[in-house]
Structures
1.
Amino acid sequence: MQLFKFDENNRTHRILRMGAIVTISLLAFLAVWWIVTILLNNVNFPTPDKVFEALYNLLVYGDRMGGHSLWEYLATSLTTFVEGFFMAMIVAIPLGLLLGYLKPIREFITPWIEVLRPIAPIAWAPIFIISFGSAMGSALVVFVGIVFPLLTNIIFGVQKIDKNWLDASKTLGASQGQIFVKVVLPATVPYILNGMKIGLGIGWMCIVAAEMYKRTGGIGQFLVDAVNNGQMATAFAIIIVIAILGILTTGVAEYVSKVVSRKMGMDA
Amino acid sequence: MKQEMVINGKKYDSKDRVRADRTDKLYEHIPAGEPLVKIENLNVTYRTDEKTTVAVDNISFDIKKGELIAIVGPSGCGKSTILRCISGLLQPTSGTIMIGDKQCTTAGSDRGMVFQDFALFPWRSVRQNIQFGLEIAGVPIDERRERCDRYLKAMGLEEFGDARVHELSGGMKQRVGIARAMIMHPAVILMDEPFGALDAQTRNILQESLVNVLKNSDRTIVFVTHSVDEALYLADRVLILSKRPATIHTILEVPGERPRDRGAPEFIQMRKDILGYLQSQNTLRSPKP
């Protein structure tokens, strides 16, 4: 007797299966974590139950530290993050389109990008923060983290444009400017979104790191303060919050990028 | 506002009542059957470090106004190269291409093009694809819509106006490609193996649609094809090229009004002769035992 027969062609079945696998996987992760912390028997690595209790207190009671709640720390970090993200967009989209489209400029600028790109964004933190203040400095670190993946994706996207589209628009009378606006720009949208998705993930790493370097009133500072106060369970709870936010932002970006690309008939 | 536009290096403003979407009006003074496009001493040479390849060797011919001329030749002989030179997408190594009394140097809306792999814009709907050129030329929205409706109807696409390109079959896509070129009323339409990517049945249906659309029109069309049958079914004249470097073997006049009978006896001998010649020119021919 079979109560449930899995059907590959049934959407609900596939979602249920996926959900079951993820749940079991996460439960197993929790179990491994628990076992490791018990074996370690170190006060700096609290068991998951203590961490979740701290997380619950953070979320529900808004446990305060240094006079601020989790939400205030998060708001500061998110503001910095969004600032850095928009700066990166404003710079990378026009620059990427231009570099992709105009070969002489691209050839001239590419060495600059290749020199700057391998530098870990966080390496700029001391210099940016001392020069522009802790808020703007951290935003600039996020900017550096996001701008390069975005830029390289857009340049790649422009170069991948089907030459036939350009030829077709020329024979329909389009000028270089019209081709840029009506063909190059829309054809690059999927690559812009993909670059944003990658950039968002890197941006999250940058913001936490920058805030740990200097007191900015953000989530990174919250984490350092918790550790310094010996509140290890709270520290791990904060790490979980950071992880969830990272997953949410990249998840949303991935979804948007998929839907838009499909709508535009260009899903890769 | 005075709107200026440049066609083939010559400036026009709105006073001239010549717009990028009606370039055929520029050549109204040329009577049907007279040369509209003159190709003189066309040479195309590709250079790489290792070798120099002559693709097109000193070709001259006329395209007459209102005719449908087919270019056939053995595979890889440079048929498409000639077409790309006429369109202005490729600069010939030497030689001139005159349209009317003006020399063509760059691509423009007076030479519309239909591509083998359609080259439609996937982010635009069928209607938006067809209207692309009108949009570029600054035609008012109402006129765009109205003209587009006519072409949707003529190409049997009425129900697909709002469809996305990727929802269409290959045959439907090329109908859009043809409509997109025709709606601009270019002086000449260049078709680069327009039905080459389609299966045999779809090919026949599209050839018939094309004949239908061209009925009672004075369109000038050059098309490159692999198919001798297609050339004999559609063209007024067939230009037969040699193997690379391409030279003109002959230009054949095809008798009969369109639509033609595909199996008509007068075509059988012509078909045999052309195929025989192409076979003799085929460089991929297996060696004789």
Note: The mean pLDDT of chain A is 89.
2.
Amino acid sequence: MAEGDAKIDFAAALVAGLKAALVSAGLAFPILVWRAEQDFSNQLVLQSRWSWMLYAVVIGFFARFLSHLYEQRPKREKTVRTAASDAPPGRLAAYLVPFGIAALIAFPFVALALAGPAGAQKWIDNYGIQILIYVMLAWGLNIVVGLAGLLDLGYVAFYAVGAYAYALLSTHFGLSFWICLPLAGILAAFWGILLGFPVLRLRGDYLAIVTLAFGEIIRLVLLNWTDVTKGDAGISSIPAVTFFGIPFKPGANGFAATFGLSPSPIYRAIFLFYLILALALVTNWVTIRLRRLPIGRAWEALREDEIACRALGLDTTKVKLTAFSLGAMFGGFAGSFFAVRQGFVSPSSFNFIESATILAIVVLGGRGSQIGTAIAAVAIIGVSEILRELDFLKQIFGEDFDPTQYRMLLVGVAMVIMMNWKPRGLVSTREPTLFLGKKRTYSADVVQEGRG
Amino acid sequence: MELFLQQLINGVTLGSIYGLIAIGYTMVFGIIGMVNFAHGDVFMLSAFIALIVFLALTQIAGVTSLAFAFVAVLVVAMAFTALWNWMIERLAYRRLRGSFRLAPLISAIGMSIFLANLVYVVQGPRNKSIPPQFSDSIKLTSGGAYDVTLAYKQILIVVVTVVLLAAFWFLVQKTSLGRAQRACEQDAKMAALLGVDVDRTISLTFVIGAALAAVAGVLYMINYGVVNSADGFIPGVKAFTAAVLGGIGSLPGAVIGGLLIGLIEVFWANYFSSDYKDVAAFSILAITLIFMPSGLLGRPEVEKV
């Protein structure tokens, strides 16, 4: 039992836990207990599995029991750190950033040394490139959501514009990747302005829903405009990336032969890895620089209080539009990279779940924080890639257990928990770009967000 | 003419379902000012609950009377869906009322993803279909180019919708619960000072919204006979469009909006292109929000500093 004045009431926690167990049983009853499955004559029959209800009850009980105990913990006096923690700002960043970049540059060679050419392919492609694409997308969206405070639920539309721009320009006009990359960015930014112009006078939830609507409209048009996009079948045989004109293929003119290396598909993966790393770092660098310019300050001011911004004479539409189109441009770059990496694009890669995943990364990382976003991308995309590898779980839970199914389930739970527990995300401190005397970090407690 | 009449019937049927879902959006928005993004998935969940209860009744309990099965499915689905939505409000939204404005929306998106994937995991990725029920029909015209038919299920859908809407209207307008609900909608702080239990009223709003979504889920199963774990998103967005079109916060607006969206969808699919019918719904959503955000019957939002 507890000592001192803080008494822990186990009985109350037990009662709360039992109530939660009862509710869990009710929630689980029809949907978990029976599974409707087609039999051989295509009729639905119910398979019962009461054990699932038991799991739900046990989980419900312990979750509530423990959370009740946690709520009873001795409360510390909540100190609102008014202005300063005197710690120099970005201490974490100061060490992490150079180390992280060095580690990323070394990553392909470390993977190659440790896993050999065959094993390294998987590490560089599935983990390295995949995670970096999402880091770049999340950094792009961070400009819109994190800095300007505009919730964009249709970000994947600009990713799609970039991907289809490269796919169509390269297959129809034979343009190379290096010409298409800026074109894809410009086209996406153009679409950002086009869509942004009517929607940006809305705020908050309505803005979010309209961006969702536009995102879906673009996907549906890509799906149904079969003359140009080939619909659901998608565009395949997109030209692969070349090393400034030298193709990555075996043969006399290939990359390996030109540089006198032994032929292997790994060079292409390594080149793509450095390409997306460079693109992501450019995104980050531009964002950091922009934050210090008047336009970046205007974005953050807009996020904190739109009415004050208008009163101070900022043209809010213009400020929003720059954020929206810049975010879109980076989405377009990432999209054309996606197309050149896959060699195939189809509308199913650009659905709402993709937008929600990118948004989840930004939200979990702490809107506005570059480092937090990168960490969240590693966590979410890394975990979902690792889930693919957990085949041994099949031996525990049976053959039809598929860990990858649980990926989005976990993303959803993480979003809800994060909003309730730390609404500002993992890295929630604000680092001012203007300061008097000494640079200090501001805890999230003192930054009150306005309606925006 | 025959085609027009037939599509009118189909549109009203579909619109009734959208209207029932739209009430859940509009009530929640009215009382706590959030877009309950997970509501479409609550609807999908209710369709699954209805499906399972129907199969359990006919296969395990051996019920043969279709009418009894229908009423039992309706009641059970309403009860369990209401329990789910009650829990969702408690866990995902209640603590966020004082948070920054986008927090509840982001939490609701998380909840929506969670629900869709929970059903995907526990029920599998395949479409679930039941044989058509109440599918006999009455011929309204004959001899023309096309026979206009009115299926029993369409009559059932419209009748159930009208009866439940009337009951719901009575609940909101005439009972103390409804008065508390309307009071919280106008000014939650003042209502709390006058002794209205705001938390309980908000919980009840979610429960009522879910019960009506469950009715929509049962009717959806009768109309289409097939459901999938991904089916919450599109009907959810369409019902939200209906709520916005009718004027968010307005209950008659939600029903009118639902009917309009149902009719527009059906006529669009027939006279223009069925591939682009969802584009039509999304476009109406965008156009309404941009050009008349207070909808047909809504009050304009006044911005206070």
Note: Chain B touches chain A through 68 residues (CB under 8 Å).
